[in-house]
Amino acid sequence: MSKICDHTSVGMVVREGDKILLIERAKGTKGFALPAGHVDADKTYEEAAKRELKEEVSLEAKELKLLIEGRKENPCRREGGTWHLWKIYEAIASGQIIRSLDETKKAGWYSPEEVAALGLRTNQFREGKISEDDWNNNPGLEPVMYEWFKQLKIIS
After folding, report:
1. What is the pLDDT of residues 69-98, one digit of tens each?
2. Which among 154, 8, 156, 153 is positioned nearest to 80, based on CA atoms?
3. For residue 42, what are the domain limits?
4. Are 58 and 98 in contact (CB under 8 A)?
5. Is pLDDT at 142 greater than 90 in this prediction?
6. Domain tally for the chain?
7. CATH number reported for the structural domain that contains residue 28 in this entry
8. What Cα–Cα distance (Å) separates residue 135 from each residue in 16, 18, 37, 93?
9. Are 24 and 139 in contact (CB under 8 A)?
10. Which among 23, 27, 74, 140 is least surrounded, fewest beta carbons within 10 Å?
């Protein structure tokens, strides 16, 4: 039995110098994304942010600062999941990245140029210039992350 979507999501911007932490999703929507996930049974978005960061990349969130929030239409592998109310935080984190083998294909630090290239790939996919097969084998930013990254001015 599949879970019902709770329409709530958190994402965490974690930086190391000028690089940003991205994961490549192993499940659901193809693409690179911030560590992110549903609020689920957590009492607050902040609790969910800390839990998701720990689950996906084994980092401890020491501080969270809300950067942006809002509703985005985005597909979810959960039943009824066509949109989410998002809160994106900047996280000061400690520890060593150890990616979840279940939830991620990759996790690492990406330079502004690498993030921009992933964004360009997403834009090309949205414009139909990249096939579904090509995208699935070599994705860019997850589409909802592409939108958030533009709003946050991480990409132009």
Report:
1. 999 998 888 898 899 999 999 999 999 999
2. 8
3. 8-111
4. yes
5. yes
6. 1
7. 3.90.79.10
8. 28, 27, 22, 31
9. yes
10. 27
